[in-house]
Specification:
It is built from six helices and eight strands. By secondary structure, the chain is of the alpha/beta class. The chain has two domains: 67 residues, Nucleotidyltransferase, domain 5 (2-Layer Sandwich); 95 residues, Orthogonal Bundle (Arc Repressor Mutant, subunit A). The chain has a four-stranded mixed β-sheet. A two-stranded parallel ribbon has the order 5-6. The longest helix has 11 residues.
């Protein structure tokens, strides 16, 4: 039986926000959080994502990734090449996450269109579940996937962080009026 990789949590406070990065023993990223207001929110989000770790460490090696996550949060997109620990994901899930990575900054797509592009017909709810379970928000920009009517839908823990999704999209240049993305921004 193959043993599970051990995971460590690296925390950073950047500009008054806490970001969590869960790293496996081979240095790949198992999960990350968006910038949050408190350390306890980092733990709460990781629990909601069903992500566990064995200890909290201080590792300066990942400062570049933290900086890149902050820049993505501020609307610049995530442009670093990083190794992700994709254990536990099916090939279909990986394909959908790869399609999500290709959505350009300043644009969005819909759950339905992503399902069609993935060859899954009307399985838009399945796409929604994959986006909800995305362990790498900002690295894999699930915030760029919205409902067919242009309304934003949830982000991370359902609707708790939906306002953050809107803020990130606005910083990326997406225009949102009365809670809906304008059609010219939808691929």
């Amino acid at each position: 039986m193959k043993s599970r990789r051990s995971r460590e949590l690296v925390l950073r406070n950047i500009h008054g926000h806490w970001i969590g990065l869960v790293i496996t023993d081979d240095g790949s990223i198992y999960a990350n959080t968006i910038p949050l207001h408190t350390r306890s929110e980092v733990f709460e989000v990781l629990r909601a994502m069903n992500v566990d770790f064995v200890r909290i460490v201080d590792n300066m090696e990942y400062n570049g990734i933290f900086d890149a996550l902050w820049r993505a949060y501020m609307g610049e997109g995530f442009n670093e090449k990083v190794a992700l620990d994709i254990s536990g994901l099916s090939s279909r899930e990986l394909a959908i996450l790869e399609l999500t990575k290709r959505i350009p900054r300043g644009k969005v797509t819909t759950y339905r269109r992503l399902a069609l592009k993935a060859g899954l017909g009307n399985a838009w709810r399945y796409i929604g579940r994959i986006m909800a379970r995305n362990r790498w928000p900002l690295i894999i920009p699930c915030h760029r996937v919205v409902r067919s009517d242009g309304s934003l839908g949830g982000y991370i823990q359902g609707f708790k962080y939906a306002k953050v999704k809107e803020e990130i999209l606005r910083r990326e240049g997406v225009v949102i009026l009365r809670g809906r993305v304008l059609k010219e921004y939808i691929l």
